[in-house]
Structure formats: structure tokens, C-alpha cells
């Protein structure tokens, strides 16, 4: 078993250094020297820029559909663009209700409810709520 592990390490020693290696070193080094407050601030800044970009993307999508659509199907495409924004809002609420009801049935009210609520909140963020 130890001989097989040494073979893997020798293979790593003989490979050429690539850009991927430097990227990995920089990213892990940044992780070692940041604390939770910095990560929280970075998260707020990146969410702001993401919202700024999405806010510019919504009106642009209708413009692109009106420019590149055929004359025959242009109205349907623009209606679909605006209808899908409403559908996204509707399905976002439905996903939130479904996840909350699943966690309500799975985890009854106890003193450790806070950790379960945090887990529910993390699942909602994972789904993009």
C-alpha cells in the first residue's frame, strides 16, 4: 500500500508545472489568509455586481428578441420574454414554500430548530432564491 502511494507522489514530482498549479496555489493561499468578515464583505460586493448585471440583462433580452426575431414571430417572442420573468418569480415562491414545508415535516419544533432553519435557508440559497 505504501509503495503505491509513493508511486503517485513520484508521478506528481515528475510532472511539469502548469498554469493550473499556480492558480491552485493562489486560490488556496487566499483562503488561508482571509477571515470570515472578509468573505462576508466579498460576498456582498459580488452579489451587488451580480444584481447590477442582471438588472441590465432583463431589458436587453427583450431588445435582442425584438431585433433578431422574424416579423411573423416577433410578438410571440417578446411576450415569452416578459411571461418567463413572471414565471420565474412564481416558481421561485413555489420552491420556497415546498422547501419550507419539507423541512417543517422533517424536523419538528425542538431547541435545535435554529440549526435546521439555517440549513433550510442554505438550501433555498442553493436553489437561487
From TrEMBL:
Gene3D superfamilies: MFS general substrate transporter like domains. It is a multi-pass membrane protein. InterPro entries: MFS_dom, MFS_sugar_transport-like, MFS_trans_sf. The chain crosses the membrane at residues 36-56, 77-103. Residues 1-129 form the Major facilitator superfamily (MFS) profile domain. It is found in: Membrane. Keywords: Membrane, Transmembrane, Transmembrane helix, Transport. GO terms for molecular function: transmembrane transporter activity. One of its GO terms (cellular component) is membrane. This is Inorganic phosphate transporter 1-2. The lineage of its organism: Eukaryota, Viridiplantae, Streptophyta, Embryophyta, Tracheophyta.
Amino acid at each position: 500500500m505504501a509503495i503505491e502511494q509513493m508511486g503517485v507522489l513520484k508521478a506528481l514530482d515528475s510532472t511539469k508545472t502548469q498554469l493550473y498549479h499556480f492558480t491552485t496555489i493562489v486560490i488556496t493561499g487566499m483562503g488561508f489568509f482571509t477571515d470570515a468578515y472578509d468573505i462576508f464583505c466579498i460576498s456582498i460586493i459580488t452579489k451587488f455586481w451580480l444584481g447590477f448585471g442582471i438588472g441590465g440583462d432583463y431589458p436587453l433580452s427583450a431588445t435582442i428578441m425584438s431585433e433578431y426575431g422574424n416579423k411573423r414571430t416577433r410578438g410571440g417572442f417578446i411576450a415569452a420574454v416578459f411571461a418567463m420573468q413572471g414565471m420565474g418569480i412564481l416558481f421561485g415562491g413555489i420552491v420556497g414554500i415546498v422547501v419550507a414545508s419539507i423541512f417543517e415535516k422533517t424536523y419538528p419544533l425542538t431547541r435545535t430548530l435554529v440549526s435546521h432553519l439555517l440549513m433550510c435557508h442554505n438550501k433555498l440559497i442553493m436553489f437561487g432564491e
